């Protein structure tokens, strides 16, 4: 991963892949051009590196020239394209091939056509190393395309983000989500998970996603996913993981500015943990840690009986029910402890002490992530 200005970028296209694509374009073009001596026109600044590598590979005599246009500002294609250096030579009767680093909206290309409109060239063809089909809004034919890419901002191999990144020999893609801290929070009943989640939310600016709350919200508001989940629940069946994942995805998408998430109540199984990893990966992010509050059984029982006395929650009052819930917790989370331990992401935190003391211990773990 690299950082340019305020943004993070991840490796996307290797130098080898670029070289291969370039070679394919050279071969195809050399074949089509035949015995003509073509004039390759690089569009500056972006295509300087590509043009250089391209003509070094070109097996026959050719000419090279440049025009300089500017359209991008920061991360967005801008409306007006400036012609900074136009054509400086007569191209009448010549076979002209435009070398573009990337074709995005096609605005730059429209400008190129405008420049060549009155030139009496023999033929004008467009070659671009990268092409974003989803972003392209024009009808001009693209004669040679190296690599089609999704509509996401890239840097490297001539392409820049506000001036930086042009010198990179590989291409990097912008990370959709920037630096995030994502936690999976666990704790047996009575461990104080809710209290600590509340604190972590505030201190680290995280969004707390409690699966139970998400379910209740979706069902109450009769969202498509809520109705789907309900249809399984009504039949007495388990809600398929994918439905839960889709709900969590919706929560993550609602909070694109979040510094991270606390997942609470999910995952419960290996398959779910994998599905969650996949979800985070699709957001260019990851689960950084599983944090489990550890409290001895006897203390939990004592706490819950105490809570039951004041809250009147029936399941908190009965000691054998309490012990069962604790047992169930350990049997269920053992698999996940293994799953996250294998990735060095498991952190057990002593959950006995004052709220502040426990908070302090949690912070120590998170600050190190
Ligand atoms: P278009 O005019 O929208 O087709 O954009 C073409 C020009 O915008 C290219 O020549 C680049 O200078 C710039 N551009 C488009 N997409 C990207 C990108 O992902 N990274 C960096 N520059 C880009
Ligand atoms: Mg360009």
Keywords:
369 residues, alpha/beta, binds inosinic acid, binds magnesium ion
What report would you give on this structure?
With 369 residues, this protein is an alpha/beta fold. The strands form 3 sheets. It has a 6-stranded mixed beta sheet, sandwiched between helices. A hairpin with a 2-residue loop joins strand 4 (63-73) and strand 5 (76-85). It has helices spanning 15-33, 48-57, 107-116, 193-204, 211-220, 224-234, 241-254, 270-282, 297-311, 314-317, 319-342, 355-367, and strands at residues 2-4, 7-13, 39-44, 63-73, 76-85, 95-103, 123-131, 144-148, 154-155, 171-174, 183-186, 207-210, 261-264, 289-294, 346-350. Helix 1 crosses helix 2 and helix 9 crosses helix 11. The model has no long low-confidence stretch (mean pLDDT 91). The protein is built from 12 helices and 15 strands. 42% of the residues lie in helices and 24% in strands.
């Amino acid at each position: 991963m690299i950082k340019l200005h305020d943004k993070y970028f991840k490796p996307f296209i290797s130098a080898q892949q670029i070289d291969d694509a370039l070679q394919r374009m050279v071969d195809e073009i050399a074949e089509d051009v035949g015995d003509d001596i073509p004039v390759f026109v690089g569009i500056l600044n972006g295509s300087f590196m590509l043009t250089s590598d391209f003509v070094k590979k070109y097996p026959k005599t050719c000419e090279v020239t440049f025009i300089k246009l500017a359209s991008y500002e920061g991360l967005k294609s801008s409306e007006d394209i400036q012609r900074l250096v136009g054509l400086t030579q007569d191209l009448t009767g010549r076979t002209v091939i435009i070398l573009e680093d990337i074709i995005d909206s096609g605005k730059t290309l429209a400008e190129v056509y405008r420049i060549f409109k009155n030139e009496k060239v023999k033929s004008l063809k467009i070659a671009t190393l990268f092409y974003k089909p989803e972003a392209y809004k024009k009808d001009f034919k693209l004669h040679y395309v190296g690599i089609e890419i999704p509509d996401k901002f890239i840097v490297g191999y001539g392409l820049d983000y506000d001036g930086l990144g042009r010198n990179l020999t590989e291409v990097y893609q912008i990370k959709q989500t920037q630096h995030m801290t994502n936690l999976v929070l666990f704790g047996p009943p009575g461990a104080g998970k809710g209290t600590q989640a509340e604190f972590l939310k505030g201190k680290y600016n995280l969004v707390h996603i409690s699966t139970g709350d998400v379910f209740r919200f979706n069902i109450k508001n009769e969202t498509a996913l809520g109705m789907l989940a309900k249809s399984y629940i009504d039949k007495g069946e388990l809600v398929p993981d994918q439905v839960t994942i889709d709900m969590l995805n919706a929560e993550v998408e609602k909070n694109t500015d979040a510094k991270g998430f606390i997942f609470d109540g999910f995952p419960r199984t290996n398959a779910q943990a994998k599905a969650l990893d996949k979800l985070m990966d699709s957001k260019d992010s990851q689960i950084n840690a599983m944090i489990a509050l550890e409290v001895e059984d006897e203390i939990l029982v004592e706490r819950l009986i105490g809570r039951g006395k004041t809250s009147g929650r029936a399941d908190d009052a009965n000691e054998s029910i309490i012990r069962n819930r604790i047992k169930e917790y350990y049997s269920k989370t053992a698999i996940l402890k293994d799953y996250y331990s294998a990735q060095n992401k498991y952190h057990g935190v002593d959950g006995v002490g004052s709220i502040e003391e426990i908070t302090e211990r949690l912070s120590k773990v998170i600050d190190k992530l």
